[in-house]
Write a structure and sequence with these properties.
Length: 186
Protein backbone atom coordinates (compact mmCIF):
# COMPACT_ATOMS: atom_id res chain seq x y z
CA UNK A 1 0.00 0.00 0.00
CA UNK A 2 1.55 3.30 -1.08
CA UNK A 3 -0.34 5.59 1.28
CA UNK A 4 0.94 6.30 4.80
CA UNK A 5 -1.43 6.32 7.76
CA UNK A 6 -1.48 8.53 10.84
CA UNK A 7 -3.61 7.03 13.62
CA UNK A 8 -4.74 8.80 16.78
CA UNK A 9 -6.74 7.53 19.75
CA UNK A 10 -9.77 9.61 20.73
CA UNK A 11 -12.54 9.47 23.34
CA UNK A 12 -15.90 7.90 22.51
CA UNK A 13 -17.92 8.31 20.39
CA UNK A 14 -14.92 8.67 18.06
CA UNK A 15 -12.72 5.89 19.44
CA UNK A 16 -9.94 6.93 17.10
CA UNK A 17 -9.12 8.62 13.83
CA UNK A 18 -6.87 7.41 11.02
CA UNK A 19 -5.72 9.77 8.29
CA UNK A 20 -4.34 8.63 4.93
CA UNK A 21 -1.37 10.84 4.10
CA UNK A 22 0.22 11.13 0.68
CA UNK A 23 3.12 13.24 -0.53
CA UNK A 24 0.49 15.88 -1.45
CA UNK A 25 -1.14 15.98 2.02
CA UNK A 26 -3.97 14.49 4.10
CA UNK A 27 -6.14 12.58 1.63
CA UNK A 28 -8.72 10.56 3.58
CA UNK A 29 -10.04 10.14 7.11
CA UNK A 30 -11.43 7.01 8.74
CA UNK A 31 -13.15 7.27 12.11
CA UNK A 32 -11.29 4.31 13.56
CA UNK A 33 -8.04 3.91 15.47
CA UNK A 34 -7.06 1.28 12.91
CA UNK A 35 -6.63 2.23 9.24
CA UNK A 36 -9.04 0.45 6.90
CA UNK A 37 -7.79 -2.67 5.13
CA UNK A 38 -8.60 -1.21 1.73
CA UNK A 39 -7.95 2.27 0.37
CA UNK A 40 -9.59 3.98 -2.60
CA UNK A 41 -7.92 3.01 -5.87
CA UNK A 42 -6.79 6.60 -6.51
CA UNK A 43 -4.77 6.48 -3.27
CA UNK A 44 -3.31 3.01 -3.75
CA UNK A 45 -0.79 4.35 -6.24
CA UNK A 46 -0.28 7.81 -4.73
CA UNK A 47 3.24 8.64 -3.56
CA UNK A 48 3.25 8.11 0.21
CA UNK A 49 4.09 10.84 2.65
CA UNK A 50 7.43 10.76 4.34
CA UNK A 51 7.59 9.85 8.02
CA UNK A 52 7.94 13.49 9.03
CA UNK A 53 4.71 14.60 7.31
CA UNK A 54 2.81 11.57 8.62
CA UNK A 55 4.00 12.32 12.17
CA UNK A 56 2.99 15.99 11.74
CA UNK A 57 -0.55 14.98 10.74
CA UNK A 58 -0.82 12.55 13.67
CA UNK A 59 0.45 15.15 16.13
CA UNK A 60 -1.89 17.91 14.91
CA UNK A 61 -4.98 15.68 14.78
CA UNK A 62 -4.15 14.46 18.30
CA UNK A 63 -3.75 18.06 19.51
CA UNK A 64 -7.10 19.00 17.94
CA UNK A 65 -8.89 16.05 19.57
CA UNK A 66 -7.31 16.99 22.92
CA UNK A 67 -8.63 20.56 22.59
CA UNK A 68 -5.18 22.12 22.10
CA UNK A 69 -5.28 22.95 18.36
CA UNK A 70 -7.74 25.00 16.33
CA UNK A 71 -6.13 25.03 12.87
CA UNK A 72 -4.37 22.32 10.88
CA UNK A 73 -1.36 23.65 9.02
CA UNK A 74 -0.65 20.66 6.80
CA UNK A 75 -1.86 20.48 3.19
CA UNK A 76 -4.93 18.58 1.99
CA UNK A 77 -4.64 16.15 -0.91
CA UNK A 78 -7.84 16.79 -2.89
CA UNK A 79 -7.37 13.82 -5.25
CA UNK A 80 -10.46 11.95 -3.98
CA UNK A 81 -12.69 14.93 -4.84
CA UNK A 82 -13.71 16.54 -8.11
CA UNK A 83 -16.12 18.99 -9.71
CA UNK A 84 -18.75 20.66 -7.51
CA UNK A 85 -17.81 18.39 -4.58
CA UNK A 86 -14.24 19.73 -4.59
CA UNK A 87 -15.39 23.33 -5.00
CA UNK A 88 -17.85 23.12 -2.09
CA UNK A 89 -15.37 21.31 0.18
CA UNK A 90 -12.63 23.81 -0.61
CA UNK A 91 -15.02 26.68 0.17
CA UNK A 92 -15.83 25.03 3.51
CA UNK A 93 -12.14 24.48 4.26
CA UNK A 94 -11.31 28.14 3.57
CA UNK A 95 -14.29 29.86 5.12
CA UNK A 96 -15.58 28.03 8.18
CA UNK A 97 -13.08 28.07 11.01
CA UNK A 98 -12.93 26.46 14.42
CA UNK A 99 -15.96 27.14 16.62
CA UNK A 100 -18.11 28.42 13.75
CA UNK A 101 -20.94 26.81 11.85
CA UNK A 102 -22.65 27.41 8.54
CA UNK A 103 -25.93 26.03 7.23
CA UNK A 104 -26.10 23.79 4.20
CA UNK A 105 -27.85 26.62 2.34
CA UNK A 106 -25.26 29.22 3.36
CA UNK A 107 -22.44 26.96 2.18
CA UNK A 108 -24.26 26.35 -1.10
CA UNK A 109 -24.56 30.11 -1.63
CA UNK A 110 -21.00 30.83 -0.50
CA UNK A 111 -19.41 28.18 -2.70
CA UNK A 112 -20.55 29.80 -5.95
CA UNK A 113 -21.46 26.40 -7.39
CA UNK A 114 -25.20 27.05 -7.27
CA UNK A 115 -25.34 30.69 -8.40
CA UNK A 116 -27.50 29.77 -11.41
CA UNK A 117 -30.12 27.97 -9.29
CA UNK A 118 -33.33 30.05 -9.14
CA UNK A 119 -34.13 31.46 -5.69
CA UNK A 120 -37.23 29.29 -5.33
CA UNK A 121 -35.16 26.14 -5.81
CA UNK A 122 -32.28 26.90 -3.43
CA UNK A 123 -33.51 24.11 -1.14
CA UNK A 124 -32.22 21.66 -3.77
CA UNK A 125 -28.74 23.25 -3.58
CA UNK A 126 -28.76 22.91 0.21
CA UNK A 127 -29.77 19.25 -0.11
CA UNK A 128 -26.97 18.65 -2.62
CA UNK A 129 -24.47 20.25 -0.22
CA UNK A 130 -25.70 17.80 2.43
CA UNK A 131 -24.90 14.93 0.07
CA UNK A 132 -21.46 16.41 -0.58
CA UNK A 133 -20.83 16.60 3.17
CA UNK A 134 -21.78 12.92 3.42
CA UNK A 135 -19.22 12.05 0.74
CA UNK A 136 -16.39 14.14 2.21
CA UNK A 137 -13.29 11.91 2.15
CA UNK A 138 -11.35 14.20 4.52
CA UNK A 139 -13.98 14.74 7.21
CA UNK A 140 -12.65 16.38 10.37
CA UNK A 141 -9.82 18.06 8.42
CA UNK A 142 -12.29 19.59 5.98
CA UNK A 143 -14.82 20.24 8.73
CA UNK A 144 -18.17 18.99 7.48
CA UNK A 145 -19.20 18.67 11.14
CA UNK A 146 -19.45 22.49 11.11
CA UNK A 147 -22.21 22.40 8.47
CA UNK A 148 -25.63 22.29 10.13
CA UNK A 149 -29.28 22.33 9.11
CA UNK A 150 -31.21 25.58 9.36
CA UNK A 151 -33.33 23.97 12.09
CA UNK A 152 -30.79 21.88 14.03
CA UNK A 153 -27.65 19.78 13.72
CA UNK A 154 -28.52 17.91 10.55
CA UNK A 155 -26.93 14.56 9.81
CA UNK A 156 -23.38 13.29 9.94
CA UNK A 157 -21.76 10.30 8.34
CA UNK A 158 -18.51 10.51 10.31
CA UNK A 159 -17.90 7.09 11.79
CA UNK A 160 -20.14 4.63 13.52
CA UNK A 161 -21.32 7.32 15.95
CA UNK A 162 -22.99 9.43 13.26
CA UNK A 163 -24.62 12.55 14.65
CA UNK A 164 -23.13 11.86 18.09
CA UNK A 165 -19.68 12.32 16.56
CA UNK A 166 -20.85 15.64 15.11
CA UNK A 167 -22.26 16.67 18.48
CA UNK A 168 -18.97 15.71 20.21
CA UNK A 169 -16.86 17.70 17.72
CA UNK A 170 -19.10 20.77 17.99
CA UNK A 171 -18.95 20.51 21.79
CA UNK A 172 -15.15 20.25 21.62
CA UNK A 173 -15.10 23.47 19.58
CA UNK A 174 -17.43 25.29 21.98
CA UNK A 175 -20.38 25.53 19.57
CA UNK A 176 -22.52 23.34 21.86
CA UNK A 177 -22.52 23.31 25.64
CA UNK A 178 -21.15 20.09 27.15
CA UNK A 179 -23.56 17.72 28.83
CA UNK A 180 -22.83 16.18 32.23
CA UNK A 181 -21.69 12.96 30.55
CA UNK A 182 -19.49 14.58 27.87
CA UNK A 183 -16.23 12.65 27.50
CA UNK A 184 -14.11 15.40 26.00
CA UNK A 185 -10.53 16.35 26.74
CA UNK A 186 -9.71 16.94 30.38
Amino acid sequence: MAVSWASVAAPEPLGGVSVAVTAAGAAAVAFSAQPPDEVPARLATAPPADAQRTALVARQVGEYLAGRRRVFDFPVDWSLTSGPQRTVLQALHRAVGYGRTVTYGELAAGSGVYDAVPTGERWAAAREVGQIMGSNPVALIVPCHRVVASDGLGGYGGGYGGVEVKRWLLTLEGVLAPTLDWSGPA
